[in-house]
User: What shape does this take?
Amino acid sequence: MKTLNNNDTTSFHLQLLSKIMDMNEYPFINLIIENDITYKEFEELMHLLQKLDAQYNIQKEEGFLDFTSLLVQFAGMLTEKLDPNNTIYALKKEGYFPSLITAFTSIIEYEEIRGKRR
Assistant: This one.
């Protein structure tokens, strides 16, 4: 029988765990696992979201109504392993940064509707 190295063992364990968990309830975690996001990439993403959330709150207090620039910044800084829209919807489902993510989903949905009208 083939001996598993640490990476193979970890991958195998994650596969087993994903079978016993309802991954639909954890779409963000599922994206992290499926796209081989490293701990460093995860930490960078969380730091980016914290920074954008702080900017969002400042802009909201100042009376801003359009947060498209924050969404563009998010998409531009996101690792290429992740799709921005899928990531945003997954974050929303798991409840990360609710105000910021709600603003992002509103922009995405508005742009989708606007695109269909053309």
About this structure: The mean pLDDT is 89. The helical segments are 6-20, 27-34, 39-61, 68-77, 84-94, 98-117.
